[in-house]
Amino acid sequence: MFMLSNTDDVVKVEITTSIGGKYVLTDDEGISAFNEQLKEIQSGEDNQFINFLPDGVDEVRGVYEDVFIHIDHLVQVKFLRKLD
Question: What are the residue ranges in the chain where pLDDT is below 50?
Answer without folding.
Answer: none
